[in-house]
Amino acid sequence: MSALLNIFQSIATTPALLVGLIALLGLLLQKKSATDVIQGSIKTFAGFLILTGGAGILSNALTPFAKMFKFALGVQGVVPSNEAVVAIALVKYGSTAALIMLVGMIVNVLLARFTKFKYIFLTGQAMLYVACFAAVVMVSAGMGSGWKTILLGGLFEGTLFTITPALCQPFMRKITKGDAVAMGHTGNIGYAIAGLCGKFFGDKKHDTEDIQFPKALGFMRDSTVSITIVMAIVYIILAIICGPHFVEHSLSKGTNYIIYSIVQAGTFAAGFAVVLQGVRMILAEIIPAFQGIAQKLVPNSKPALDVPIIFPYAPNAVLLGFLVSFFVGTICMFIMVAMHTTVIIPGVVGHFFCGAAAAIYGNSMGGRRGAIIGATINSIIISFLPLFVLPVLGDLKMAASTFADTDYLIPGIVLGKLGNMGSTALTIGIIAFTVIVVLISLFMKKPSKAATK
Predict the structure, then answer these.
(1) Contact 405, 160 (CB under 8 A)
(2) Residue 303 is inside which H or E element, if any?
(3) What is the arithmetic mean of pLDDT over 266-276?
(4) d(CA 155, CA 103)
(5) Contacts of 410 (CB under 8 A, 6+ apart)
(6) For residue 371, is pLDDT > 90?
(7) How does strand 302-305 pair with strand 182-183?
C-alpha cells in the first residue's frame, strides 16, 4: 500500500509526468497514430520539464537577491514559504495527504464532468500542498487520519481547484485571446481580484506591451534585453548597499560583487527565456491532445496550467508586476515593524510569480494603471494575510513559516477557523462549500462566443 501511495504521489507531484500522461490519454482517446501519440506525449512532457527548469533558474537567480535584501535591511521575521510548511507536514501526514490529493483529483474531474465549471487542475505540487494543509487542520480538529478526513479533505481540495480557475477565466480569455487554457495556480483568487481592480480603476487605452521606447532605446523592445538591464540595475544597487565584503564572501565565492550582480541578472533573463520556450511547446501539444479528454471524458473541459503559462502574453507586465509587488511588500514589512506585529519578510520568488501574474491580469482589463494597481493590491493581500494564518499554524506548532499565495491564505484562514471550532463545524463548512459551488453552476449561463474574443 505504501509503495502504491509513493508511486501515485510521485506522479501527481511531478507536473511534467502528470501532464504528459494526460496528453497520452487524450491522444489515445482520439485514436491518433502511434507516431502522433508518442511525439505529442513526449513533447508535452519535455515542454513541462523545460518550463519547470526555467522556473528553477529564475528562483535560483532570485535567491542571492533575497539574501542581499535581508542583509541590507537587517530585519528578522517570517518568510512565507509553501515548501517549508509542507516539508514539516509531510513527515507526519504524508500518507493522509497523498490520499486526500487522490480524492481531490477525482472530485475535480467529477465536478468538471457534471457542472458548468469545466476546469481540470493539473499543477501537481499545488495539489499536494493544499492536501497537506487540509490533513493538518482536520487531524488537529480531532477527526484523526481515517476515511472521514480523507474524503472531506479531498472534497475541499477538489472543489477549490474547480472553482478558482473559473474565477480567473474571464480574464484568461482577455489575456490569451481565446478560451482553450485556464489558470491552475494557487494565486488565482488574488489574480481575479487584480483583474477586477484593473477593470474598475485602470485605463485600458495604455497597455503595458505598447510602451514606446525612443529609437535610441529600440533594443529595450526585446524582453530578454530589457529584463537583463532592469534586473542588473536592481541587483547592482542592492549589492552596493550590502557592500563587496558580504557579497564576495557570502554569495559569489570571491567573484567581484558588481560582476556577480550582472551575471545573476543575465541568469534571471535566461530563465525567463527558457520558460517562454517551454510554454510554447506545452501549448502546441497539450491543447490538441486535451481535445480527446474533452470529447470523451469531460466534454468542453479545459486544462488549468501553472502560472508561467501566461508570461509570454505580456513580458513587460511580468517585470513591472514583480518590481511593484516586491516594493509594496517591502513597505508592508516596515509597517509591520512599526506596528510591532510579527514581521512578514517579502518572499522574492512569491512576489515574482504572483506579482507578475497579478500585473498581467490587471493589464488585461486596465492597461498599465491596471497592472500597477493589480500588483499592488495582490502584494498587500499576500503581505498581511499571513499574519492571520500564523495563529492557525501556531496551534499546529508550524509557526516557523507560513503559506504564501492567496489560495492558501484565504481558504486556509476559513478552514483553520472552522477547525478550531471543532470537527462538526469543519464538516458542515466543507460540504456547504461544495454545495454552494454546485448551486452556482446550476444558475450559470455559458459564456457567449463574443466573450472569448
Answers:
(1) no
(2) strand 302-305
(3) 89
(4) 7
(5) 189, 385
(6) yes
(7) parallel
